[in-house]
Design goal:
It contains 8 helices and no strands. The protein is mainly α. The protein has 2 domains: about 70 residues, 434 Repressor (Amino-terminal Domain) (Orthogonal Bundle), CATH 1.10.260; about 50 residues, no CATH class. It comes from Xanthomonas hortorum pv. vitians.
Length: about 120
């Protein structure tokens, strides 16, 4: 999952102009550029404005913030959604980890990585 796909899935039928009207100082063109993948790495302030415009839950806001930093493996993204009790602070190091050799491919594999992160 990447920022572009996440924003597309959350904006439903609202246009970028409609989203930008929900929040001051959020340019619809910039929002479109982020959502289309033409721009990356929005500031924390922009992420907060996007979350408000998209009317995201607190959990989805945390996911949006993480996706603004790095794409997330699809299996890990499913795990995040299935287990909202896992803090994003435990997920972020796993999501940004570099792997030599085999990457985790199942939710169980990702849980082992998250447990490893927690133990550090």
């Amino acid at each position: 999952m990447d920022l572009k796909s996440f924003v597309s899935s959350k904006r439903e039928s609202a246009s970028f102009r409609q989203l930008s009207e929900r929040v001051e100082d959020l340019d619809h063109v910039y929002l479109w550029r982020l959502a289309s993948g033409h721009r990356t790495a929005p500031s924390e302030d922009t992420v907060a404005k996007m979350a408000k415009a998209l009317q995201l839950s607190s959990r989805d806001t945390e996911i949006l913030a993480l996706l603004s930093k790095t794409p997330i493996d699809d299996v890990l993204f499913e795990l995040i959604n299935r287990h909202p009790e896992i803090p994003i602070e435990d997920i972020e190091p796993a999501a940004t980890m570099s792997f030599r050799g085999t990457r985790p491919t199942t939710q169980d594999d990702w849980m082992k990585i998250i447990e490893l992160v927690r133990s550090m």
